[in-house]
């Protein structure tokens, strides 16, 4: 680029800045109009990126080689439908007879159980009763200590694995392993600490849990011994999960004497089911916010076009004087487009900040997980500049094509 072109560009930039600053109200309306649209676009991109990262995390900790079976049919919530449908016979026969099974861990649970250690207490946490190798079954590493053993289950031992949240609430930064604390009305000893996962599910944090032997839970809370609330099943060949799940469903239906037209009285959840749910959620989110973003950005564009059209009339004498002094049509066109680009770029940055701020609020409320990336920055700024050029070109051309004599007379 020649020295003359650079000088002209610098002059146009100064004049564009002066015009933007001179018409503050117009500039503010354009910035806000574009900003709201870019904020919606920012939310879309960051929320989708966050959902994809969350999907990867959920699949990793759930395990691609496992299925979680709940009693009751979540998809067919008929009035009076039973949720206690998984029996000891189901667990035994699946362990012994279902092809490809490597591990079956049945579970019962008790919600909102108060726990306490000295002066530290939690009003209510989830207590899960499970058989041996709970951490192994859930691919959940232990930070320290050991897993529940078959001997613990046989004896109904008063031992527990702690999730990260109750460990911090009860013991702070100290190790909980070897310490005793109260669960409901009885004392247990912590034998292991589960690694922090930071995910949420089922209406609460997955780290907010205490796991004790299933026999201990059943005896201490006088629970029904015949049924289990859920069972975790791991398979040997994860690449054949679709076949494993179909075999499991057929096996359960046969075990429960269900006819061809009867609905399942159980629910099977796998990593694929989680991905399908997140994909549907992501699609709905993109559709909703996409319409909002498109509408907001279009409105911002029309605000820019209308205000610039008015500005051409208001500044006709200025344009006529510049043309009389030798300004070319291209120079006038470039100045107006530069003004539009400056305003929409600022609007894009404002919208980016607004979108990220709103995203952080939604993240703290647990509604969305927002993930910032440079892709968001460049997409937001690029879309704002596109608005400036698309909607600013018509008034810019009108300004460039004004007759200088008519403009100086005020007839334009």
UniProtKB/TrEMBL annotation:
Give the location in the cell.
Answer: Cell membrane
Q: Which residues cross the membrane?
A: 28-48, 285-312, 332-358, 370-393
Sorted keywords for this record are:
Cell membrane, Membrane, Transmembrane, Transmembrane helix
Q: Where is the MacB-like periplasmic core domain?
A: 27-241
Which named protein is this?
Putative ABC transport system permease protein
Q: Does the keyword NADP apply?
A: no
List, alphabetically, the PANTHER family matched.
Answer: ABC TRANSPORTER PERMEASE YTRF, MEMBRANE COMPONENT OF TRANSPORTER-RELATED
Q: What is the lineage of its organism?
A: Bacteria, Pseudomonadati, Thermodesulfobacteriota, Desulfovibrionia, Desulfovibrionales
Stated family:
Belongs to the ABC-4 integral membrane protein family.
Q: Which residues form the ABC3 transporter permease C-terminal domain?
A: 293-403
Q: Which domain of life is it from?
A: Bacteria
**Molecular function terms from GO:** transmembrane transporter activity
Q: Does the keyword Disulfide bond apply?
A: no
Tell me what topology the record assigns in the membrane.
Multi-pass membrane protein
Cellular component annotations (GO), alphabetically ordered: plasma membrane
């Amino acid at each position: 680029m020649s020295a003359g072109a650079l000088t002209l560009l610098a002059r146009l930039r100064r004049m564009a800045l002066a015009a933007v600053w001179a018409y503050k109200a117009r500039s503010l309306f354009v910035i806000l109009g574009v900003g709201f649209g870019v904020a919606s676009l920012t939310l879309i991109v960051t929320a989708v990126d966050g959902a994809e990262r969350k999907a990867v995390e959920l699949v990793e900790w759930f395990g691609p080689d496992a299925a979680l079976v709940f009693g009751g049919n979540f998809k067919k919530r008929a009035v009076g439908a039973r949720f206690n449908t998984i029996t000891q016979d189901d667990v035994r026969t699946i362990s012994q007879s279902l092809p490809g099974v490597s591990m079956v861990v049945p579970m019962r649970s008790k919600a909102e159980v108060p726990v306490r250690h000295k002066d530290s207490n939690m009003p209510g946490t989830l207590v899960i009763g499970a058989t041996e190798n709970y951490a192994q079954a859930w691919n959940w590493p232990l930070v320290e200590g050991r897993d529940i053993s078959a001997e613990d289950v046989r004896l109904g031992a008063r031992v527990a694995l702690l999730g990260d949240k109750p460990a911090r609430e009860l013991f702070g930064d100290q190790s909980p392993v070897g310490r005793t604390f109260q669960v409901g009305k009885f004392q247990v000893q912590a034998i292991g600490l589960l690694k922090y996962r930071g995910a949420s599910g089922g209406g609460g944090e997955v780290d907010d849990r205490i796991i004790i032997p299933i026999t201990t839970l059943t005896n201490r809370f006088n629970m029904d011994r015949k049924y289990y609330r859920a069972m975790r099943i791991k398979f040997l060949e994860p690449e054949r999960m679709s076949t494993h799940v179909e075999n499991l469903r057929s096996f359960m239906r046969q075990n429960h004497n269900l006819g061809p037209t009867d609905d399942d009285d159980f629910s099977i959840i796998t990593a694929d089911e989680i991905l399908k749910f997140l994909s549907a959620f992501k699609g709905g989110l993109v559709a909703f916010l996409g319409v909002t973003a498109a509408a907001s950005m279009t409105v911002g564009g029309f605000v820019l076009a209308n205000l610039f059209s008015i500005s051409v009339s208001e500044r006709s004498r200025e344009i006529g004087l510049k043309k009389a002094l030798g300004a070319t049509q291209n120079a006038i066109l470039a100045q107006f487009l530069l003004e539009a680009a400056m305003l929409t770029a600022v609007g894009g940055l404002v919208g980016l900040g607004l979108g990220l701020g709103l995203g952080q609020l939604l993240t703290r409320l647990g509604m969305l997980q927002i993930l910032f990336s440079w892709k968001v920055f460049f997409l937001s700024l690029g879309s704002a500049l596109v608005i400036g050029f698309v909607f600013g070109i018509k008034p810019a051309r009108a300004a460039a094509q004004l007759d200088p004599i008519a403009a100086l007379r005020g007839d334009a």
